[in-house]
Amino acid sequence: MLVKLYSIFFMFTLTACAPSTVHLHSYKVSEAKKNEIVMALRATGFKVLISERKPPLLALGSFIIYPKDNGDNDDLVKILNIINEKGYSTGLIAKNRVRNHEYWDSNNIGLYLVETDGLMSMQEQLAAEFAVDISEVEFTSTNCSKLYRLTFDKGGNARVNKIPLLWSRNGDTLSISQQGNRQQFTYSNKYERNGVARELVMQLEPYENSELENIEYLNCKYQSRTPLIE
User: Fold this and answer.
1) Residue finishing a domain among 66, 85, 118
2) Is pLDDT of 98 > 80?
């Protein structure tokens, strides 16, 4: 019994003492400056992962997603001190409002650094590559007799429900193949207001292809909606 209690206590202690991981996203921050910030964060005891994904709304400037409990602000203070020393400040510190798996764990913190010099306008952002890649979201069918869930990975594999697929992309044309059957989709994206929140909406619309009429999931329209921080 004592051994079991000690084991539980030891596991709890390890969990409680686990270092927080900072997921660093940046826009137009120089590599030298980024490296300085990473080194300072690591020297303070954080793990750091550099994300290729840009901040979702650049017009906000720099901000932090801080999913820890109210009153647990030690890590937040450390991060703010570091970025302030490096010339960055943030007017927004948000609890998790992004449906992103990284932040369900309270040991994960999102740090979004934006270099405001030469910042794009909102229209320029809309015309540019969107902050969320299609391999990071789940698409769902919108016009078929049953619900299909479509996901992609960066290696060219995809899956609709439990069916394995292959995919490739050329600009706004996305191709999906399954056992010799190949369908093309037109890809589009936009920002959309949903109540008080803004969402990134990505859509896939299939080409007309009479040879694939009997394969319903290759003829569905698909959509993904990602809430963004404002």
Assistant:
1) 118
2) no
Statement to judge: residues 178 and 90 lie in one domain:
no
Residue 127 pLDDT class (50, 70, 90 cuts): very low
Lowest mean pLDDT among 53-62, 141-150, 179-188: 53-62
The pLDDT value recorded for residue 13 is 43
Share of the chain above pLDDT 90, in %: 33
What does the alpha-carbon distance between residue 73 and residue 116 come to, in Å, rounded to a whole number? 26
Write the single-letter amino acid at 179.
Answer: Q
Task: Confirm whether 11 is domain-assigned.
Answer: no
For residue 223, the enclosing domain spans: 134-228
Residues 6+ away with beta carbon under 8 Å from 212: 181, 183, 218, 219
Report the SS3 class of residue 204: strand
In this structure, what DSSP letter does residue 54 have?
A: P
Furthest-apart CA atoms within the chain: distance in Å: 70
CA dihedral 191, 27, 98, 64 (to 10 degrees): -140
Q: Which two tokens stand for residue 72?
A: 């647990």
**Number of structural domains the chain divides into:** 2
